[in-house]
Structures are given as C-alpha cells and as structure tokens.
Amino acid sequence: MDAMVALPPLNALRAFEASARHLNFRLAAQELGVTQGAVAQQVRGLEARLGTPLFDRLPRGLRLTEAGRRFHAPLRRAFRLIEEAVEDLSGQRQITLSVTPSFASKWLVPRLGDFTARHPDVSVQVDARERLADFQTDGVDIAVRQGRAPFGDGLVAEPLFPTEFVVVGSPDLAAQVTSAQDLLAHVLLSDSHGLWPLFLERAGVQGRPRMMNFSQTSLAIDAAVAGQGFALANAPLVAAELMAGRLVQPLAQVLLDDLGFHIVTPRKPRQPDLVALMREWLRAQA
C-alpha cells in the first residue's frame, strides 16, 4: 500500500482557501478570527511548501495565479465535504448565501434574525463580496445579485426588488431641495453603478454636478446619512433609514432602470430543500 502524501497544515489550507475567496488577507483574517499577518504568514509558508506562488500581491488585494486557481477549486470542494459531514452528524444543516456587501449591510443582516428564529436547525453562512459567486467551486447555494439577467448558463434568476432608485439625503440637506435642479448646489454621492448622469438627464437638470464616488452603495448611503450630500439608491436599501428619519426623499422623481436585485440559483441546486426555504423567505421579506 502506497504511503499517504504528507499534507500541508490544515490552518495553512484554511488561510489560503479563505484568502482565495475574498482575494484579500484582511477579510480572510476577519472570517477566521486571526490577524492579517497570521494569514499572510500561513499562505507564504504554504507557497514555500508547494514550491509555487499562489497569489499575485497587488496594491489593492490579491489575484490568484494559475496554480492558485487550480489549487483552490478542489480545495474548496474538499472543505465543503468536511462541512457537510459535520452537518450530517450534528443534525445542523447549513446554507451558504452569496450577496454584495451593500445588500448584506443595508437589507439582509437586519432581517436575518427572522430566518434563524423560524429555522433554528439551519445555519446560514453569508458570503458578502462584489465578485460573482461560482456555484461550482465556492460552495454557494443561493445568491442575491444586482444587475441585468441572465447571469450565466445553468442559472435561474428571478426578480427580488423593483428597479426603482430614489434620491435621499439628510433631513437638513433635504429641506434645501425642492426641485432636481437644486441638487447642483450639493455634492452627489455616486456608487459603482454611476446612475446620477442618467437621473439628471431624465430630470432635465442643466449644469455640471459635483460628485463624490464610492466603490459600494452602502458607503454612499452612509455618506448621505452623515450629511455629505445626496445618494441615488435602490429604494429597498434605504427603506430603514427613511422610516427612522435618518434620510429623507426630497423629490418625487425616481429612476427606473433594469439594475434590479435578483435571486440566483443553479438549475440543479446541491441542496434543493434548503434553497427553496431561503428563496421563499427572501420573497416574503421583499
């Protein structure tokens, strides 16, 4: 019988797998509950042991090398098999939900307690990142994504939210705006979707706006709450702030676009019962 190949330390494999999913040592460290330096050191040790680099280190994050991509896919499947074995013995089922960071912080997380209260036997893992989930390699069961369907071959997408974008600002700033033209006196807070020019054009606004740009919608919303300007956000993402009075919608005009949120699942999900359970809960919440 052939001797078993000596495997790298489990902590090093976990550090690499989490870093490969997030493409960021800091986010991987937060997930694993260790320091960023510890994750980077574990990955360096793994690269030295394997004799090949697994990441390209970039100024703003990481990029998998070809060897890293080949290594990550089967490693992710292996960790998922371990998770399923533990779930099977413990009686605790787990579903992994992939969402964008803005959707997670502004809509999902405040509501997630309702799901866990209704289904105490189901553990929910939230994978919040901008990159689209790979249902084959990331261990993701169901996703919520903003964009234009379809999202890929073999995937089913159904609308979750209507595609209505509203102008919101702090109460003090909102009191200064009675028409869309008044927005030019203030800073417009833009996210990666960049819909402000389209809104201003359709509203007939003349002039050049002052812009502040953010990589995530949640940051633009937070800046609006802080009184730094006006954000143009998907209505459900600011519903809580509007209800609490932290934000005000000063204009009746809205922007209708096809950048809505969709529930995305594989045509043949790995855990069909859990996927159906989460899908129905998301629909009810929306």
UniProtKB/TrEMBL annotation:
Q: Which GO terms describe its molecular function?
A: DNA-binding transcription factor activity; sequence-specific DNA binding
Q: Which InterPro entries does its entry note?
A: LysR-type_TF_proteobact-type (IPR058163), LysR_HTH_N (IPR000847), LysR_subst-bd (IPR005119), WH-like_DNA-bd_sf (IPR036388), WH_DNA-bd_sf (IPR036390)
Q: What keywords are annotated for this sequence in UniProt?
A: DNA-binding, Transcription, Transcription regulation
Q: Which biological process terms from the Gene Ontology are attached to this UniProt entry?
A: DNA-templated transcription
Q: Which residues form the HTH lysR-type domain?
A: 8-65
Q: Which residues form a coiled coil?
A: none
Superkingdom as given in the UniProt entry: Bacteria
Pfam families named in the record: HTH_1, LysR_substrate
What family does the Swiss-Prot or TrEMBL record give for this protein? Answer: Belongs to the LysR transcriptional regulatory family.
Name of the protein this chain belongs to: LysR family transcriptional regulator, glycine cleavage system transcriptional activator
Q: Please tell me the species this chain comes from.
A: Ruegeria intermedia
